[in-house]
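Just wondering, does anyone understand these tokens?
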Amino acid sequence: MLEKNDALKAALVGKAGEALVAAKLLSRDIDVAYPAFDGGVDLIAYSEHNFERVVPIQVKARSKTCYTFQRSWFKGIRGLVLVQVWNVVAEPQFYLFESLNDVEDALGPRHAGTASWQERGVYNVTSPNDEQIERMQPRRNRWDRIDSKLNT
């Protein structure tokens, strides 16, 4: 059998992450739609055909514990919730961010002050240390960040 290339593997992990997030939302009685075009929104959460309140969701999934943030994800998409999914294949962990301020709080002042974040608007961590993992924990399984936007 031919080995899949890295780009294909990453795409499959991304789709698996989206499916896991959708399953979590559905289990909370939140309906989910998949946009036909991915213009920065992977899923749309809504409640019982009430389209007056919808929550656009961007999912970033990884097969291990690592993460990337981009400031541009929050520009132009009002009410976006970012869901970082770690360890998609083994034991998925979900971290929910509802604003750029929330991301910067998770990064902490030292990392949010780097040239990578301040000038380029990107911060990537391929092997987070204990402090970085600890800063992410207040966002773990915070599905209420979507619930509250829908008033469920």
Remarks:
- Strands lie at 31-33, 43-47, 50-61, 67-70, 81-86, 93-97, 122-125.
- The domain at 6-150 is CATH 3.40.1350.10 (Trna Endonuclease; Chain: A, domain 1).
- DSSP finds five helices and seven strands in the chain.
- Helices lie at 6-27, 100-112, 115-120, 130-136, 144-150.
